[in-house]
Amino acid sequence: MQRIVLLLNMAQNFTIALFGIARDIVGTNTLTLSTEPELNVEALLAQLKAAYPRLGEIRSLLVAVNSEYAEATQVLNSSDEIAIIPPVSGG
Amino acid sequence: MITITDQTIDVQAVIAAAESERAGAIDVFIGTVRNHNNAKAVLRLEYETYDAMAVKKMQELAAEAVRRWPVEKVAMVHRKGVLQIGDVAVVVAVATPHRAASFEACQWLIDTLKQVVPIWKKEIYENGEEWLEAHA
Questions:
Q1: Residue A91: which of B31, B118, B134 has the nearest Cβ?
Q2: Does the beta-carbon distance from B31 to A64 stay under 8 Å?
């Protein structure tokens, strides 16, 4: 029981891929965040915008988890493939 | 054929991939790089893609087109990297038994691709550059 509690309190590492203008602002393709467990998409974006205020100026910023657009309340796992998706402009 | 490539797109090969003996129509959209945008002269474009997710989303769009229209085959190829004026950036080819559905399905595919597929375009000007759609 004690071991479970310890695991829950441990910080988790998240690897985040960045593209387009988000990559230019942060200055790297991938970012590693060490943060509390139970981090959700909304909290991740808030942390990133606090660390890199120019991300807040982008028209919209979505998060993809395992190649799927994620809801704000989705909780992230350290094994997830996480990507920051600024407004797309293909075609 | 649903791919992202850093090589020149072979338009004929994309069309060939959409051919079907059951189809009486193939509608083809070819997106090319133009030399201006919003009255600014564009020197070249740089496309960046999130390959795994982009291909997955394009496959989902193709499957959705098959649900909505009597589509026999779909082929979609998007280019990435540095593109010069006149280069082909994207090709969508849709084969259906009759032409009306191929026009509709092809337009829906390219319109939706531009909205949801994780591909980003940076315009390079004489005096600067800009990621499109990034700011309001």
A1: B31
A2: no
Tens-digit pLDDT profile for residues A21-51: 999 999 999 999 988 778 999 999 999 999 9
Q: Look up residue A25 and give its two tokens.
A: 């602002």
From chain A, the residues in CB contact with B116 under 8 A are: 69, 88
Chain B residues contacting A, CB < 8 Å?
A: 31, 47-50, 52-54, 56-57, 78, 89-90, 110, 113-122, 131-136
**ipTM computed for the complex:** 0.93
Could you tell me which of B86, B2, B89 has the C-alpha nearest to residue B48? B89
Angle at A70 between CA A67 and CA A73, to 5 degrees: 150
**What does the pLDDT look like over B8-39, one tens digit per residue?**
999 999 999 999 999 999 999 999 999 999 88
Kind of pairing, strands B73-79 and B88-96?
antiparallel
Cα separation, A2 vs B114, whole angstroms: 50
A89 contact partners, CB below 8 Å, separation of at least 6: B114, B119, B120, B121, B131, B132, B133, B134
Q: Is the alpha carbon torsion for B67, B68, B74, B77 positive or negative?
A: negative
Give B133's DSSP letter: T
pTM for the full predicted model: 0.93
